[in-house]
């Protein structure tokens, strides 16, 4: 079975980095989802889509996948450039004021 190992990104509703420290192992879908004819809900007979295993490090997740004989693909996390902090009060600093230019 094919699995993917990645570190989840923070959600749009978070300002901090909560729930982004653990590495996650997820199974790839083995069968496509189909609509239920009565209710119209999407569903599948593949129960491995519900399995998400969290690990403290990438090495632990890779070791687990090798031990279970799973084909795995590791997605490295993207690095971010640090953004310099800006304060509202910087708009009114005296050293930035220029007189005589209107």
UniProtKB/TrEMBL annotation:
Keyword match Transport: yes
Location, primary (coarse class): membrane
Keyword Transit peptide on entry: yes
InterPro entries (alphabetical): NADH_UbQ_FeS_4_mit-like (IPR006885), NDUFS4-like_sf (IPR038532)
Annotated Gene3D superfamilies: atu1810 like domain
Pfam families assigned to the protein according to its UniProt record, in alphabetical order: NDUS4
Subcellular location: Membrane
Keyword list, A-Z: Electron transport, Membrane, Respiratory chain, Transit peptide, Transport
Recorded superkingdom: Bacteria
Protein name: ETC complex I subunit
Organism: Magnetospirillum sulfuroxidans
Lineage: Bacteria, Pseudomonadati, Pseudomonadota, Alphaproteobacteria, Rhodospirillales
